[in-house]
Design a protein that fits this description.
- Helix 9 packs antiparallel against helix 10.
- A five-stranded antiparallel sheet has the order 2-1-5-4-3, sandwiched between helices.
- Strand 3 and strand 4 form a beta hairpin.
- The termini are far apart.
- With 540 residues, the protein is of the alpha+beta class.
- The chain binds adenosine-5'-diphosphate.
- The site of adenosine-5'-diphosphate has 21 residues, from helix 12 and helix 15.
- Adenosine-5'-diphosphate (ADP) binds next to helix 12 and helix 15.
Length: 540
């Protein structure tokens, strides 16, 4: 039987020397290298020739560094020395560089406690160190970041506080908004109810409603309105067809009034007749409208209502016919009465009967008053039934005014009439009817101001129209009466007026005549100070 192979010490050392651990063994105070593993020799950057040499000779760059002295110290004291992360200058491949090592110089003693050798083990931590340097650098960066984060955190927490305040305010606003919402909802309900009631009333009163988009001029109407204009409910009725159904004599006026109201925002009120589109029926309607604005104050839509007033109109017509008929019948006996009175006046004068002639002159005055009243009624009935026609001619308005002043001064000269005609004012109009208008205004000025007061008349050209004004120093007219003054049969209701004869048709007739000349009539007045009536008519 062969005994197992026994390795000599040298063989063991040889085997160890190729291990990856860096190990060296030194002896004596000179630190003679007895043994060094390949790894240790690698650290030194030398070869195996170093074995047997003192360390100071084998690795001369160590001289002057602390290591040899440390080793000698261990040898002397027998105290093992540990070190970590210690720099050592070593020449590797001819270049002197700093490496870092964890190492131990272990004192190895015999049983008698005498130093035998020093066991040197080392680990190269250069790489680790550079990693740790990086880690330290990162750490520092991290600290800076952390600080920054800390201050951001503070900012964040103050922002959070602010946010909390804003949030509270927001919550308050939201709860207020919710309150408004509830209020709005209940208002909305009331509005819907009111709307329903309005719709019900509109339906019950058979009122037609319309809506014109100001921008597009699109017309939207209720079925009732279509019916009034002779259309079927499901039929389209654009604005042009709507206007087409209006009777010839009113069509232009109505279209113009709509445009004027849209432009000026003034309320629109018109009475006119229409001929039904399909049934060709004549209906009278009364229309009112108003311009509505959007939230930015721009004109948005023009809308309103239209009512069927055919029956009322027919009643009026019958009344008119009656007034016309009666006036006409009264006119004939009145004409002969006037002739007889004139005859009697002349006869009394001739026979020297001064009482008789005076009485007849007064009777004639009353007959003339009656005549003018009856003429007024006749005119009104003619006007209403459309039987009034303008007979236009060229004439000087100044001359007409002078004639009317002379005529009225001949009848009574109770007032001072002031008129200073400057240039001629030639107009193309119905001379008799414009004469009636001036006479009516002048006699009102006399009727409603005290005797001896001045009445000033002026005639001038203004913006392409001739404007006549008649001012008195009478009792004046209140604002609320001024609005209705030109209505048919309207008289101011006060004690004084009860003693002044009249039917409230003079101004109505006058305004109608002026309107038919494409003119306007208006009043400016203050209670107690007097009134000034104006009218204008186009020059041509
Ligand atoms: P009448 O004079 O026949 O009553 P008008 O139509 O001419 O009818 O006038 C209507 C009303 O207007 C009158 O009743 C009167 O109250 C008022 N009015 C007209 N002209 C004047 C005036 N110059 N001054 C004060 N009031 C006037």
């Amino acid at each position: 039987m062969t005994s197992p192979l026994q390795l000599s010490d040298q063989e063991i050392l040889n085997a160890l020397s190729i291990s990856e651990f860096a190990v060296a063994i030194y002896t004596s105070e000179e630190i003679i290298i007895q043994y060094a593993s390949d790894a240790m020799i690698g650290f030194w950057g030398k070869d195996r020739n170093v074995i047997g040499k003192p360390l100071s000779e084998a690795v001369p760059e160590l001289v002057g560094q602390e290591f040899i002295q440390l080793l000698q110290n261990v040898w002397k004291t027998g105290v093992t020395y540990h070190a970590k992360d210690t720099p050592a200058q070593l020449k590797i491949d001819g270049k002197l560089k700093t490496y870092f090592y964890d190492f131990t110089y272990r004192a190895v003693k015999n049983e008698a406690g005498e130093m035998q050798c020093i066991l040197h083990t080392a680990t190269d931590v250069t790489q680790l160190r550079s990693h740790s340097e990086q880690i330290q650098f990162l750490n520092e960066e991290l600290t800076v970041l952390n600080e920054e984060l800390g201050s951001s955190n503070e900012e964040l927490s103050s922002s959070i506080q602010e946010y909390a305040i804003v949030n509270d305010a927001l919550n308050e606003t939201i709860s207020e908004l919710n309150k408004y919402k509830t209020d709005l909802e209940s208002l909305n309900k009331e509005l819907t109810k009111a709307e329903e009631m309005l719709r019900f009333s509109i339906d019950a009163a058979k009122i037609g409603t319309w809506f014109i988009d100001v921008k597009t001029r699109e017309l939207i109407t209720s079925d009732r309105l279509k019916e009034l204009f002779g259309f079927y409910p499901n039929e389209e009725m654009p604005l042009n067809l709507f206007v087409n159904q209006i009777s010839d004599e009113y069509r232009d006026n109505v279209a113009e009034a709509i445009e004027t109201s849209i432009e000026t925002g003034l309320e629109y009120h018109q009475t006119y007749s229409v001929i039904g589109f399909r049934d060709q029926r004549l209906r009278w309607v009364s229309a009112s409208g108003k311009l509505y604005y959007d939230s930015e104050g721009n004109a948005a839509h023009f809308s309103g209502v239209i009512m069927d007033i055919t029956e009322q109109k027919q009643d009026d017509m019958r009344k008119n016919d009656f007034i016309g008929m009666v006036s006409h019948e009264l006119k004939t006996p009145l004409t002969s009465l006037s002739a007889y009175v004139q005859l009697m006046e002349a006869k009394s004068k001739k026979s020297g009967d001064s009482f008789g002639s005076g009485a007849m002159a007064k009777a004639l005055l009353q007959v003339n008053k009656m005549k003018s009243m009856i003429n007024g009624f006749l005119n009104i009935s003619r006007l209403e039934s459309g039987k009034i026609h303008l007979e236009k001619q060229q004439f000087d308005l100044n001359q007409l005014i002078i004639e009317i002043i002379e005529e009225s001064e001949f009848v009574s000269s109770t007032h001072i009439i002031d008129f200073e005609p400057k240039n001629t004012h030639i107009v193309h109009a119905d001379r008799d009817k414009i004469g009636n208008v001036i006479l009516n205004l002048l006699s009102n000025a006399m009727k409603y101001s005290d005797d001896g007061k001045t009445i000033s008349i002026a005639c001038e050209t203004f913006q392409g129209k001739v404007q006549v004004s008649i001012a008195d120093q009478g009792k004046g007219i209140s604002q609320q009466d001024q609005v209705r003054l030109f209505d048919r049969f309207y008289r101011v209701d006060n004690m004084d007026n009860k003693t002044i004869s009249g039917f409230g048709i003079g101004l109505y007739l006058s305004a109608e005549i002026v309107n038919r000349h494409q003119g306007e009539m208006w009043v400016e007045s203050e209670l107690g100070k007097g009134s000034q009536f104006f009218f204008n008519i186009p020059i041509k």
